[in-house]
Amino acid sequence: MGVSVRIPATTANLGPGFDTFGMALSLYNTLEADWSGNGQLRIEVTGDGAHLVPVNETNTVYKAMQQVFMEAGENELLTERGLHIRIHNNVPVTRGMGSSATAIVGGLWAANEMLNYPLSEQKLVELAVRLEGHPDNVTPAIFGGVVVSGVVNEKVYVKRFSAPIGMRCVVAVPDFQLATRTSRKALPPALPYADAVHNVNRASLMVAALSDGNLQMFCELMEDRLHEPYRMPLVPGMQKAIQFAREAGALAAVLSGSGPSLIAFCQEGAEQIGEALQKGFRSEGITSAILHLTPAAKGVAGVTPIS
Question: Where is the GHMP kinase N-terminal domain positioned along the sequence (predicted)?
Answer without folding.
Answer: 59-145
